[in-house]
């Protein structure tokens, strides 16, 4: 299987997960990589950020896949961007945890569905990117079980590093019990404000502690990044020259280079 399944994960809210999913997906698709984004958050922000609706009462969502009523092939939507497809989400997904309470293999549902689809459909995606919700709930566990690797956005603010210990413990637990191949590809520093000394302090601490796991690219705080979603387009298309876009273009390059390094080491 050539597809790489990558979750963008951090249980802290509002740290730039969805922004990173949308713009990494856009950046890779512009490099002729075929991308499937799975919106695994009941908020449905990746869905609207890529120009689709999370309020149209559609059943073609990841929820229908996870509750067993649809297959992945039934729910993949085209976006208006080349090489970029999406599985939508909406608020229905918030009921999943309670509804699957009796299923002791429920942590594997997403993995099994993705594997069945990739093995049977002749699909030709290069990357599947999963946008995780801000929690360490069942949905996040499902994403950790289904993924080969993880990108962790880290907001360069006070408290940012605090939640990371708990996330690392959860990742370790999943690795030891459910998904031994899982790796952290890297940590992406986001919302960096160069006028704020806290930002550089968090950067320094993160680099000291996580060393070369922290990407060289740092995403600045940039208002264009927060405007783009309301237009339903990635910032890379909304304003390709703004500082936010430059950082996500650079992150895309770094992500692809990292791949070359990982492959030559294998
Ligand atoms: N670098 C940035 N500069 C300015 N605004 C940003 C930046 N990155 C993200 N934002 C904005 O901050 C808010 C939170 O970002 P985003 O939705 O990507 O975070 P998230 O981690 O996915 O949030 P949640 O945990 O709720 O899913 C959004 O309004 C987004 O547009
Ligand atoms: Mg989000």
Summarize the structure.
The chain has 266 residues and is α/β, with parallel strands linked by helices. Helix content is 43%, strand content 17%. The chain has one domain: Rossmann fold (3-Layer(aba) Sandwich).
Task: Tell me the number of strands.
Answer: 8
Across the major sheet, the strand order is 3-4-2-5-1-6-7-8
CATH architecture: 3-Layer(aba) Sandwich
- Helix and strand sequence: EHEHHHEEHHEHEHEHEHHH
Could you characterize the architecture of this molecule?
The chain is of the alpha/beta class and 266 residues long. It has a single domain, classed as 3-Layer(aba) Sandwich (Rossmann fold). It contains twelve helices and eight strands. Strands 3-4-2-5-1-6-7-8 form an eight-stranded mixed beta sheet, sandwiched between helices. Helix 1 packs across helix 12. It is globular, with a radius of gyration of 17 Å. The mean pLDDT is 95. Bound molecules: adenosine-5'-triphosphate and magnesium ion.
């Amino acid at each position: 299987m050539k597809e790489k399944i990558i979750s963008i994960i951090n249980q802290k809210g509002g740290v730039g997960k969805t922004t990173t999913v949308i713009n990494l997906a856009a950046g890779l698709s512009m490099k002729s990589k075929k991308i499937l984004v799975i919106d695994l958050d009941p908020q449905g922000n990746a869905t609207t950020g890529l120009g689709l609706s999370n309020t149209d009462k559609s059943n073609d969502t990841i929820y229908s896949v996870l509750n067993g009523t649809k297959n992945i092939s039934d729910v993949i939507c085209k976006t208006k961007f080349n090489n970029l497809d999406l599985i939508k989400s909406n608020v229905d997904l918030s009921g999943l945890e309670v509804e699957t309470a009796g299923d002791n293999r429920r942590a594997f549902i997403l993995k099994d569905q993705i594997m069945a689809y990739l093995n049977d459909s002749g699909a030709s995606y290069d990357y599947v990117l999963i946008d995780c919700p801000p929690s360490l709930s069942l949905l996040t566990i499902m994403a950790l079980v289904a993924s080969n690797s993880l990108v962790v956005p880290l907001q360069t603010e006070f408290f940012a590093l605090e939640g990371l210990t708990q996330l690392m413990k959860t990742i370790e637990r999943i690795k030891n019990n459910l998904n031994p191949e899982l790796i952290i590809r890297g940590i992406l520093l986001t919302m960096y404000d160069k006028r704020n000394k806290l930002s550089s302090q968090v950067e320094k601490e993160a680099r000291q502690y996580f060393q070369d796991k922290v990407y060289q690219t740092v995403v600045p705080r940039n208002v264009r990044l927060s405007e783009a979603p309301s237009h339903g387009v990635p910032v890379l298309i909304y304003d390709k020259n703004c500082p936010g876009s430059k950082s996500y273009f650079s992150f895309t390059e770094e992500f692809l280079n990292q791949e070359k390094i990982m492959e030559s080491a294998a």
